[in-house]
Amino acid sequence: MIGSATIDEADLASPAIEVYGGDLLFDGGQAGAVMDAYRELVADAPDELTASLALLRLPALSTVPQPLRGRFGVRVRVAYAGSAAQGQWLIAGLRATAPALLDTVGLMGRTALQADPVPVYERSVELTSFPMLAADTLLAVAGPDATPPVPMVEIRQLGGAFVAQPRTPNGAGHRATRFQLLARIPGEPGTKASAEPLLEAALQALAPWAAENTQVSV
Fold first, then answer.
1. 111 lies in the same domain as 124
2. pLDDT at res. 213
3. In terms of Cα–Cα distance, which of 92, 84, 89 is closest to 24?
4. Closest to 183 in 3D by CA, of 146, 212, 213
5. Mean pLDDT, contiguous 10-residue spans, the chain (218 residues)
6. Residue 202 and residue 73: Cα distance in Å, rounded?
7. Domains in the chain: how many in total?
8. What's the pTM?
9. Nearest Cα to 51, choosing from 74, 32, 72?
10. Whole-number Å distance between alpha carbons of 218 and 198
11. What is the CATH number of the domain that holds 129?
């Protein structure tokens, strides 16, 4: 296998030491309403804000907060490189959608955005859009009534500073792509054969909105 690594740089007028960000986690029964609020948020989002939405089946483990163990949930992650007051205003509609089981959104240092790695199998595809029909289709393969379900799917908003060409040209492409679909299944080495059909099902479900390019790195 031959691979390549790229480093992409985004020009920022004033790199933020702190960002207004964190997680909002809702009960899975509110998945449709939360998806609607998420699509509304990212439709008019300024370049300083990015957000992702994930459908999660949380394990009943001690490492998961007690109210979330063994539940199906909807997580929205946000990061806003601006004031807390403006950030609160931007996500007010999302917060008003339903009572949050967990709300960690606030001012945080950039290092707080880091996460510990876990062993997973994953597939991803870039999307040109994420309309209501795509959201409904995603719920069908990963929502509360999906059988068998994909344990974790995430819609990541792209755009923002990534769209603009940097001062020093580089080889990063696909800058106009709006979203990325990421499907993940936790698994140890040697379990790929059982994971692959579910991952492929998630990608095929959203194929009508897939970008006509090959994703190398994002």
1. no
2. 67
3. 92
4. 146
5. 45 64 93 95 91 89 76 92 94 95 88 66 90 95 84 88 73 75 82 82 93 62
6. 18
7. 2
8. 0.83
9. 74
10. 22
11. 3.40.462.20
The whole-number pLDDT of residue 107 equals: 92
**Same domain membership, residue 98 and residue 37:** yes
* Contacts (Cβ under 8 Å, ≥6 apart) of 13: none
Cα 194 to Cα 148: distance, rounded to the nearest angstrom: 12
d(Cα 181, Cα 146) in Å, to the nearest integer? 17
**Looking at residue 71, what is its pLDDT?**
85
Same domain, 105 and 182: no
Residues in contact with 61: Cβ distance below 8 Å, sequence separation at least 6, in sequence order: 69
On whether residue 4 sits in a domain, the answer given is: no
Domain assignment of residue 204, given as a range: 117-218
Residue 82 in contact with residue 14, Cβ under 8 Å?
Answer: no
Tell me the C-alpha distance between 104 and 194, whole Å: 34
Its sign, for the CA torsion 100, 75, 205, 121, is: negative
**The predicted structure's pLDDT at residue 150:** 83
- First-last CA distance in the chain: 19
DSSP E strands, the chain: 18-27, 49-57, 72-80, 100-103, 106-109, 120-127, 152-157, 179-186
